[in-house]
Amino acid sequence: MEFITGSVIVGLIVAAIVGVGIGVLSGMLGVGGGTIMVPAFRLGFGLPAIGATATSLFSIVFISISGCITHIRNKTCIIPVGVGAGIAGALASPVGVYLASISPAWAIMLAAGLVIAYSSYTMFKKAIALPSKKQREAAAAEAAAKAEAEAAAKAEGSEASQVAAASDQAEGIGASGDKAAAGASKVSVKEVEASRDSFRKDRLWLCLPIGLLAGVCSGYVGVGGGFIMVPMFLAFLAVPMRYASGTSLLAILILAIPGVITQMALGNVDYLVSIATIIGAVPGAVLGANLSKRVPERTLRFMFATLLLICAVVLVVNEMVL
């Protein structure tokens, strides 16, 4: 009995450590945790195929709450699109759960492997598109040279500028300058809001089929569905890139809930493993957000893409061998 209890404790500690890793990756790269949790729960903890996807989906709901709140506060989320896709996905996710419940384990893990492999491909693609360290240094040097040239060009009129500044201060024009700065700030805020609202409102109905597809995949494979929604939001709704992830996260939070409830009713969720993972993921996300300012994103994406590819291959091979 003591051995069993000790094993459980060790397993929960490992799950918390896995959660920290998931949170770090999420905070640094803005990726969902399902692509890591499904193979970790299946291969590392020996959960049955549907148990791994169910526990992953359960964890995703709680892990995504804080990120979703942050996006809404920062106004990096298009609420009508996220809610529309989320409601449609919520209707479809129990269908995905049902299909998983009647599918053989190898089919579920094969689908999960394909999803993870696709995520790896997109991660590699983004990493290649990012500038290398040499390219960043060259761009910085070019910008510095340009700034120096502009400073030299303005040097001749510096005395006149100083006289004008003194005159303005004497006449109290500094106050009006503050008002102008405030006005410029308001203009910039309006520009950001205009960018957020620049998506194709006439195509808002497309949120429904996008959400339905993401919901089925989410319920079946146990991932959030962002790998489907983000590229579709960009391609069909012209959602600006800076708002795509936050909008997808809102939809994921909504659509995953019915699927989770269905999985809980079927008894497929391992609550202890999930809660331990969630506990580790919360501080991990904070750590990842801080590390994102120090570690090159290009290197991170290459490393994570490689990890995902290995997970996909091992997951599928393990299922075929069993």
Characterization of the model:
This protein is an all-alpha fold and 322 residues long. It has 13 helices and no strands. Helix 5 runs antiparallel to helix 13. The longest helix has 28 residues. The two termini are 29 Å apart.
Tell me briefly what this model is.
With 322 residues, the chain is mainly alpha-helical. The protein contains 13 helices and no strands. It starts with a helix and ends with a helix.
List the helices and strands and how they pair.
Elements: H1 2-29, H2 34-44, H3 49-73, H4 79-101, H5 105-129, H6 133-155, H7 158-170, H8 173-196, H9 207-221, H10 226-236, H11 241-265, H12 271-291, H13 297-321
Helix pairs in contact: 1-12, 2-3, 2-5, 2-13, 3-9, 3-11, 3-12, 4-9, 4-11, 5-13, 9-10, 9-11, 10-11
Key structural traits:
322 residues; mainly alpha; 13 helices; 84% helix
Average pLDDT confidence is 76
Query: What's the order of the H and E elements?
Result: HHHHHHHHHHHHH
Rg from Cα: 24 Å
From the spread of the alpha carbons, the general shape counts as: globular
Q: Which ranges are low-confidence, i.e. pLDDT below 50, for 5 or more consecutive residues?
A: 184-189
Oligomerization state of this entry? single chain
Strand proportion: under 5%
